[in-house]
C-alpha cells in the first residue's frame, strides 16, 4: 500500500514539472515573436511602407506633451499612459479633420467672413444731468426776512415769473417815507430825483418806486420770482429766516436741454474727440434712439474709475428725459469704413493672440492667428488673417482647439509666430510661458476626452516601454 502511494506521488510531481516547463517554453517562444512583429510593423510604418490595409504612423506622442515626438510606441515618460500614434492621413500641417457625425453631435456651426461698412467707435454708458448753462439763482440784494416761501421743497417745478419767496425789508421804510415827505412839501424835482436815486441804491425795485409815486404808500415787502421755467434744484432758506445781501435763496434749472455725461475708459481716451456722432438708447426704453454729438471732453481722468468724461447736449423740448437717467451710447466717427466681420463667439482670445478656426476647402479645420479690432454688436472686426468668404467655426471651437493642440497644430503655429517675432516680442512671450503651459494642459485634457468619444480612429498603440 505504501509503495502504491509513493508511485502516485512521484507521477503527480513529474506531471507538474512537465506542465511548468511547457508553459515556460511557450512563453519564451511566442513573446519574442510578437514583439518582433510589432517592431517590424512600426518600422514599416516609419519607413513609409505600411502593410496592406494598415495606416501609416508618422510618430507617437503623449497627449499631455504634444510637442514631444517618439519614433516607436511605448509608455509615456511623462504620464502613466501609453503613447498615442499620429497617422499620416490625419491632420498635420493641413489642419484637423473631425468626422462629420462627430461634428453634428458636438453642434459645430460655421459662419462666413463678410464685409460691411463699419463706423469706428465703441460703446459707453452715461447719465443725464441738468444743463448748468441754463441754471439761474434767486438772490437777495438786501437784508430782510422770509415772510412767505412759495417754493416749499427742492425739485419743485416752477414757471418763469412765478413767485419763489416774499421778503420783508424794514430798511426800505425810511427812504420811502422821506420821498413821500418831499412830495407833500412840494420840493423841487432835483431833491425828488436825489431821493429816487437813494432808493435805487438801497436795491428798491423801479416797479416798487413807481407804485410809491402812484399810490403814496410805502412798501416794505418784495416778491422774488423765478427767472426761468424749470425746477428748483436748490432751496437754502425756510419761512422766517433772515437773509443777507448776496445770499442765494434758490437755484432754478431749465429742462428744455440736458447734458449727457458719458464715462470713457482710459484705454479709449485717445480715440474720442469733439464732434463724434453718438447714438444713445435709454435703459428704460431701448427702442428710443437719441442722436447727438460730443460737445466737449472734460479734462482729467477720474482716479477711482480710471475713466474720462465727455459731455453731450441733448434736446429735451418734450421733457421726456429727466436728469439721472442711465443711457447706453455708441460713439463713432461720421465716416464708415469697409471692414471684415466675424461672429465674436468664433474668436478665441488666448491672452497672447486671437485665434479663429478656419474651415478649408478640403474640410480640414485649421487654427489661424488674426488681428482683431472693435466689437460691432455681436460681431468683431478682423484687421488681418482672414479674407472675405472664408468659413470659420462659430461654435464648438474650443473642442477643435483642444484637438489641434493634440495634433500639435497650435504648437507649430506658436513656433511660427515666435520665429517671425522681434527679440522684444520673444522676451515678452517668454515671460508668460508658464501661463501658456497651464492653458496647453487644460486644452490637452479636453482633447483626451474628445479622443475617447465614438467615431474617432485615434486608437492607442501598445508596445514596450521606451
From TrEMBL:
The keyword Transport applies. Pfam families: 3HB_CusB, Beta-barrel_RND_2, BSH_CusB, CzcB_C, HMBD. Residues 1-30 form the signal peptide. Residues 257-334 form the CusB-like beta-barrel domain. Residues 171-220 form the CusB-like three alpha-helical bundle domain. One of its GO terms (biological process) is plasma membrane copper ion transport. Keywords: Signal, Transport. InterPro entries: 3HB_CusB, Beta-barrel_RND_2, BSH_CusB, CzcB_C, HMBD, MFP_Cation_Efflux, RND_pump_MFP. One of its GO terms (cellular component) is membrane. GO terms for molecular function: transition metal ion binding; transmembrane transporter activity. Residues 59-86 form the Heavy metal binding domain. The keyword Glycosyltransferase does not apply. Residues 427-453 have a biased composition (Low complexity). Residues 416-466 are annotated as: Disordered. Residues 341-400 form the CzcB-like C-terminal circularly permuted SH3-like domain. Residues 136-253 form the CusB-like barrel-sandwich hybrid domain. Belongs to the membrane fusion protein (MFP) (TC 8.A.1) family. This is Efflux transporter periplasmic adaptor subunit. It comes from Pandoraea oxalativorans.
Amino acid at each position: 500500500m505504501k509503495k502504491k502511494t509513493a508511485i502516485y506521488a512521484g507521477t503527480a510531481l513529474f506531471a507538474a514539472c512537465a506542465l511548468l516547463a511547457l508553459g515556460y517554453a511557450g512563453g519564451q517562444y511566442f513573446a519574442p515573436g510578437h514583439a518582433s512583429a510589432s517592431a517590424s510593423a512600426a518600422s514599416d510604418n516609419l519607413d513609409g511602407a505600411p502593410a496592406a490595409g494598415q495606416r501609416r504612423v508618422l510618430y507617437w506622442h503623449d497627449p499631455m506633451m504634444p510637442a514631444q515626438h517618439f519614433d516607436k510606441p511605448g509608455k509615456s515618460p511623462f504620464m502613466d499612459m501609453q503613447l498615442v500614434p499620429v497617422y499620416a492621413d490625419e491632420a498635420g500641417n493641413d489642419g484637423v479633420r473631425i468626422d462629420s457625425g462627430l461634428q453634428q453631435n458636438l453642434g459645430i456651426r460655421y459662419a462666413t467672413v463678410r464685409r460691411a461698412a463699419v463706423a469706428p467707435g465703441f460703446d459707453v454708458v452715461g447719465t443725464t444731468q441738468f444743463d448748468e448753462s441754463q441754471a439761474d439763482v434767486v438772490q437777495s440784494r438786501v437784508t430782510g426776512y422770509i415772510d412767505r416761501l412759495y417754493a416749499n421743497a427742492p425739485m419743485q417745478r416752477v414757471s418763469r415769473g412765478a413767485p419763489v419767496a416774499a421778503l420783508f425789508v424794514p430798511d426800505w421804510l425810511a427812504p420811502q417815507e422821506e420821498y413821500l415827505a418831499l412830495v407833500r412839501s412840494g420840493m423841487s424835482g432835483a431833491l425828488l430825483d436825489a431821493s429816487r436815486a437813494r432808493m435805487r441804491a438801497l436795491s428798491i425795485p423801479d416797479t416798487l418806486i413807481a407804485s410809491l409815486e402812484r399810490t403814496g404808500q410805502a412798501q416794505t415787502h418784495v416778491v422774488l420770482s423765478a427767472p426761468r421755467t424749470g425746477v428748483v434744484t436748490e432751496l437754502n432758506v425756510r419761512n422766517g429766516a433772515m437773509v443777507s445781501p448776496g445770499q442765494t435763496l434758490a437755484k432754478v434749472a431749465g429742462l428744455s436741454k440736458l447734458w449727457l455725461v458719458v464715462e470713457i475708459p482710459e484705454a479709449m481716451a485717445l480715440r474720442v474727440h469733439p464732434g463724434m456722432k453718438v447714438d444713445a438708447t435709454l435703459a428704460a426704453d431701448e427702442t428710443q434712439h437719441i442722436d447727438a454729438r460730443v460737445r466737449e471732453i472734460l479734462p482729467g481722468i477720474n482716479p477711482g474709475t480710471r475713466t474720462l468724461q465727455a459731455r453731450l447736449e441733448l434736446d429735451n423740448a418734450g421733457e421726456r428725459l429727466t436728469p439721472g437717467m442711465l443711457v447706453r451710447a455708441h460713439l463713432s466717427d461720421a465716416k464708415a469704413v469697409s471692414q471684415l466681420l466675424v461672429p465674436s463667439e468664433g474668436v478665441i482670445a488666448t491672452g497672447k493672440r486671437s485665434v479663429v478656426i478656419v474651415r478649408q476647402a478640403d474640410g480640414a479645420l485649421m487654427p489661424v492667428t488674426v488681428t482683431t479690432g472693435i466689437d460691432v454688436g455681436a460681431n468683431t472686426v478682423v484687421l488681418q488673417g482672414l479674407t472675405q468668404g472664408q468659413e470659420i467655426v462659430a461654435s464648438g471651437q474650443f473642442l477643435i482647439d483642444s484637438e489641434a493642440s493634440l495634433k500639435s497644430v497650435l504648437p507649430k503655429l506658436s513656433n511660427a509666430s515666435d520665429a517671425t517675432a522681434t527679440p522684444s516680442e520673444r522676451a515678452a512671450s517668454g515671460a508668460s510661458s508658464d501661463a501658456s503651459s497651464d492653458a496647453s494642459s487644460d486644452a490637452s485634457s479636453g482633447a483626451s476626452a474628445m479622443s475617447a468619444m465614438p467615431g474617432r480612429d485615434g486608437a492607442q498603440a501598445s508596445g514596450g516601454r521606451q
